[in-house]
Write a structure and sequence with these properties.
- The chain has 123 residues and is mostly beta strands.
- It has a single domain, classed as OB fold (Dihydrolipoamide Acetyltransferase, E2P) (Beta Barrel), CATH 2.40.50.
- The chain has no helices and eight strands.
- It has a six-stranded mixed sheet, with no helix packed on it. Strands 5-8 form a two-stranded antiparallel sheet.
- A hairpin with a 2-residue loop joins strand 6 and strand 7.
- The chain is globular.
- It starts with a strand and ends in a 21-residue tail after the last strand.
Length: 123
């Protein structure tokens, strides 16, 4: 397999749409790498910069389950790699990363901040 590095800065906002879960074999067994570490898969939406287009990719992380990543969480993906594959007349792209971590909101950006979204004086 030839994995290609992906510059996540060019992808725009990445958000979890399917929480991390153990990757399974067709027989229902937990999939592991050659060293016996569990493979975790997380569904991420990727909104391309300067576009209304969004895609969902399933990113595999090996070893430690991504913590603090839940549906709706904006995330950072560390060392994202893509591999285009073809097998038995099928083709696709598989995605791997070293880690997936939640984006920590900056001070003042938290949900309880005192910003107004409507017009002043509206009731």
């Amino acid at each position: 397999m030839q994995y290609k590095p992906i510059d996540t800065a060019r992808l725009g906002v990445m958000r979890c749409v399917i929480a991390p879960e153990a990757r399974m074999t067709p027989d229902g067994e937990i999939r592991r790498d050659r060293e016996g570490r569990v493979q975790w898969v997380t569904g991420l939406s990727v909104r391309q910069l300067e576009s209304r287009r969004a895609d969902v990719i399933n990113v595999v992380v090996v070893g430690v389950q991504p913590e603090g990543v839940a549906e709706g969480t904006e995330v950072h993906v560390i060392n994202l790699w893509a591999n285009e594959w073809q097998m038995d007349g099928r083709s696709g792209t598989s995605w791997r990363a070293d880690r997936i971590t939640p984006v920590t909101p900056a001070a003042g950006d938290a949900a309880g901040s005192s910003g107004s979204r409507g017009k002043t004086g509206e009731k």
